[in-house]
Design goal:
The protein has helices at about 1-5, 10-30, 50-75. By secondary structure, it is an all-alpha fold. It has one domain (about 1-35, about 40-75). The protein is elongated, with a radius of gyration of 33 Å.
């Protein structure tokens, strides 16, 4: 067991230097800057933003629910 703990000084220096470079590469990898450009008012309205789309969707949903409930009561 003592032989495993007895590491030479040059090996210790190599491990310290290797650990230092590894940790610096991890820190450098986290230092990226991201440019986010959001255009909220670009002028184009999509169909799913319109209120009529919500009304039609709810109406279709209610019709499907009613059809499923009525279909099961006939059995």
């Amino acid at each position: 067991m003592k032989q495993l703990l007895n590491i030479s000084a040059s090996l210790k220096k190599s491990l310290v230097i290797g650990t230092f470079f590894f940790s610096q590469s991890l820190i450098w990898a986290q230092d990226k800057k991201v440019d986010v450009n959001l255009n909220v008012k670009d002028g184009g309205n999509e169909w799913y933003v319109e209120p009529w789309a919500l009304v039609v969707g709810v109406a279709v949903f209610i019709i499907i629910i009613v059809a499923l409930v009525r279909g099961k009561s006939n059995d």
